[in-house]
What does this fold into?
Amino acid sequence: MYAQFFGSYLLNKNAVSAEHLTTAIAALSETHIKLGTLAMHKGYMTASEVDEVCFLQTREDKRFGEIALERNYLFEDQLEDLLKSQNPDYLLLGQTLVDMGVLSNTELESLMIGYQEDNKLDESPEQEANIEETTALITHFFENSGRDLTGHTLMYMNLVFNNLVRFIGEDFTPLAPVSCTEYNTTYCVTQAISGPVTLTSGVDMEPDVAMAFASRYAKMEFNEFDEYVSASLEDFLNLHNGLFSVNMSNMYSEEIELQPPMHEESPVITMSEDSFVMPVIYPFGTVYLLIII
It folds into this structure.
């Protein structure tokens, strides 16, 4: 998760443009090797075991390595070896920007020091942030935009970022969330949650962005905006909120109720002052995440 928030930090510092950043992140995703691929390459896991763990990630809010350990597909020393074998995304993003000529090594060094100090990171963060570190990164990200997230809302947004990485791709950069009382939609899918947590979440995007988003999620190519694209967006939102429901049950023994996902017919959504919209930049376009409270 370091690379995504480092990218946001660079944008806030006006060190890079959004165009340069998305180009660098796209290149980063092409060089990143997933744990499952590495595990097969090293002979630690079979293809069927990797497929099973990937499937279980759609049912449990856990990392690939956590599930593989629980299923006895990996040992602790093997997982440690795999994590060390992965390219460090946080540093790799900076190096990619230097290779592109966007930053100098001197500029990168200064920016990394500032980012580490702001987020209280050590000089050599691990490849994959643990839960506490990820929570701290997200907390600081929202604090910088004047928003203090706590409790279930913080847990919810933590899961949002994790699920974007898992099911859409890690080549994204979140921009500062914006409060608004009215939001003009393009193609927006929402789902209401009630119970101990009451909110409505949504995703909104241009049709061409929706096709690319759905293609990644469904792992098949969509070349026209149709009901299959719409169904994929609804399924992503329902999957995400379903995992949140599982977490609420497992961690707090609290049950929440999910309404069916729906396409917003109205071009304008009325929101409270506590609600916000957060743009997320992918190489294929911008996805707008809505949290309506």
Observations:
- The chain has a mean pLDDT of 89.
- The beta strands are 173-174, 182-184, 187-194, 199-205, 257-258, 262-263, 268-270, 276-282, 285-292.
- The chain has two domains: 2-158, 174-292.
- Residues 174-292 form a domain with the Chemotaxis protein chec fold (CATH 3.40.1550.10).
